[in-house]
Amino acid sequence: MEQTLSIIKPDAVKKGVIGKIIDRFESNNLRIAAIKKLQLTRCEAETFYAIHKERPFFKDLVDFMVSGPVVVMVLEGKNAVAKNRELMGATNPKEAAKGTIRADFADSIDANAVHGSDSLENAKNEIAFFFGAREIC
Ligand code: ADP
Ligand code: MG
What we know:
alpha+beta, Alpha-Beta Plaits, four-stranded antiparallel sheet, 40% helix, globular, binds magnesium ion
């Protein structure tokens, strides 16, 4: 069993597809072990995406992530990290495989509907960033 962090980004929350995205996880054996809706502060978004701070898109990414509420979740299941990345599809929705979340719900590389941890190590850190042990079950 693995756990990974998923974020439904502001574009998908605004579109009203929280339920449809959660259905993709639950239909593919990823259990929602924790969930909450929140508005990221600029400082939180910058800290969460600190790994990208030298990239040219960093400011746009942070601006976008604070543009509205997000839903953060801990997904749990067999190979959860890789399974979530597979269900999400490629970063650029134009390149995302048919039937993936980004192909179906994302509009652009900036507004790409979901975040998912890219390794078990990052998943542990990202989960700890948003959730205390008391909030995960
Ligand atoms: P992923 O979300 O697929 O793990 P990355 O970790 O590489 O992708 O990038 C984090 C986020 O930064 C992406 O989801 C996307 O919103 C944004 N991003 C990545 N690359 C670009 C780019 N070339 N132009 C604009 N935004 C980008
Ligand atoms: Mg990433």
